[in-house]
Amino acid sequence: MNPLVKQLNETIQQQNPHVFDMLSPLGKAIYFPKEGILSQSAEAKSKAKAYNATIGIALENGQPMHLKVIQDTLSAYAPKDLYEYAPPAGKPELRKAWRSKMIVENPSLAGKGFGNPVVTNALTHGLSIVADLFAGPGDAVIYPDKNWENYELTFGIRRGAELVNFPLYNESVQFNAEGLKEAILAQRDKGKAIVVLNFPNNPTGYTPTAEEGYEIVAALLAGAEAGINIVAVTDDAYFSLFFEGSLTESLFGQLAGLHPRILPVKVDGATKEEYVWGFRVGFITFASESEAMLNALEQKTTGIIRATISSGPHPSQTFVLQALQSPDFEAQRLEKFQIMKARANRVKELLDSSKFEGAWTYYPFNSGYFMCLKLSTVDAETLRVHLLNQYGIGTIALGSTDLRVAFSCIEQEHLEDLFNKIHQGVQDLEQVAATK
Ligand SMILES: Cc1ncc(COP(=O)(O)O)c(C=O)c1O
């Protein structure tokens, strides 16, 4: 066994054996090589004052070699912030800036131990790192029945984990913390569970209230107290878009330091929050009171990155860092928040007027990019296709009753027309059914 991985595993064992038990076979085997090309070139970067002939980039006139056709369109940025490889764990200044933002936006993190965010190639990559490190064949990955479909590929297909769903809402149409708790406690025999908490939720646009938040935390705690090791992943893709009556923090804060059998992992990023979907900048952050543990988990995470993409794109890390440091950042973000909130409010206003009665109900929503209709009379996929062909309207059908509408993509003044046409589509199909 490589001495580095032996050392990392011993550290994790010593600091918290439950966390060691949470690791997948790959998670146990991975490490970040200290004595390879990267460390030698890092050493050379500070010491090789005459000639640095270490890493596989090209230099010219003391800066990264580059083509004018590219630099001309990016002239606001220095070549060193664009063309060089970013470190595998990400640009240090960006990691620091994201951590500071996290503390400001999540007051419940005050006084808690959590690591330095490691930069990922956006959230999908962060989730895939979680899967690599913790999910093995047959491990239970628990999340609600209304979810982002990609979890199935990331955890199920790619790592062979068993996907365990529970109904997102209970009978009072509130978050079904009891269902979550049952799903966790059902893993007693395995002694391990990975729980994915995604709020604001895709596809429903739901974020729990503060009270429901406590119930979720209590459900995880009950699992830990029953002897189940829990990797508690918060997928905070739509973080900060909280419009009314919900938690406004990630549950990562409350979960940090809660129980030795709970390992909180925060997956977040600039993608949806900062409206930079194609930039591919995300983060993965662990919580632990032990610095040695945080360091070991960071090394393993960086090992996975080195083994898969080697490092994330540098230009987009620079763009996001520049935005975070800009004095205009907060004001501009607030402006976009207000637009999104106004759209959500308008959708609610339209749906709460009685004009669509009988056609559908809707799942409670208070945050994020989406809302979901629950169709009463027609099949969701049939309606989706009809809306597309007849009215040129694109929606997402989920199962037989649910239709997801991304109000994030529709200007406020067009929302009424959109829902009128969806309603018309329902009526068309009802009529066809009646004449059959
Ligand atoms: C809940 C959720 N998590 C993660 C992602 C992936 O985000 P990214 O584009 O940053 O990989 C999405 C994207 O749709 C999402 O809806």
Q: What are its keywords?
A:
single chain, 436 residues, alpha/beta, Aspartate Aminotransferase, domain 2, Aspartate Aminotransferase, domain 1, 2 domains, seven-stranded mixed sheet, four-stranded antiparallel sheet, 13 strands, binds pyridoxal-5'-phosphate
Give the arrangement of secondary structure elements.
Blueprint: H1 3-15, H2 17-22, H3 25-29, H4 37-47, E1 59-60, E2 63-64, H5 68-71, H6 92-105, E3 118-120, H7 122-134, E4 140-144, H8 150-157, E5 162-166, H9 177-185, E6 192-197, H10 210-225, E7 229-235, H11 252-255, E8 262-269, H12 270-273, E9 282-286, H13 291-308, H14 314-325, H15 329-352, E10 360-362, E11 370-375, H16 380-391, E12 396-398, E13 402-406, H17 415-435
Parallel strand pairs: 4-5, 4-6, 6-7, 7-8
Antiparallel strand pairs: 1-2, 3-9, 8-9, 10-11, 11-13, 12-13
Helix pairs in contact: 1-13, 6-14, 7-8, 9-10, 16-17
Describe this structure in words.
This protein is of the alpha/beta class and about 425 residues long. It has 2 domains: about 5-30 and about 90-325, Aspartate Aminotransferase, domain 2; about 330-435, Aspartate Aminotransferase, domain 1 (Alpha-Beta Complex). It is built from 17 helices and 13 strands. It has helices at about 5-15, 15-20, 25-30, 35-45, 70, 90-105, 120-135, 150-155, 175-185, 210-225, 250-255, 270-275, 290-310, 315-325, 330-350, 380-390, 415-435, and strands at about 60, 65, 120, 140-145, 160-165, 190-195, 230-235, 260-270, 280-285, 360, 370-375, 395-400, 400-405. The strands form 3 sheets. Strands 3-9-8-7-6-4-5 form a 7-stranded mixed β-sheet, with helices on both faces. Strands 10-11-13-12 form a 4-stranded antiparallel β-sheet, with helices on one face. Helix 6 (about 90-105) packs across helix 14, helix 7 runs parallel beside helix 8 (about 150-155) and helix 9 runs parallel beside helix 10 (about 210-225). The radius of gyration is 24 Å and the shape is globular. Pyridoxal-5'-phosphate binds next to helix 7.
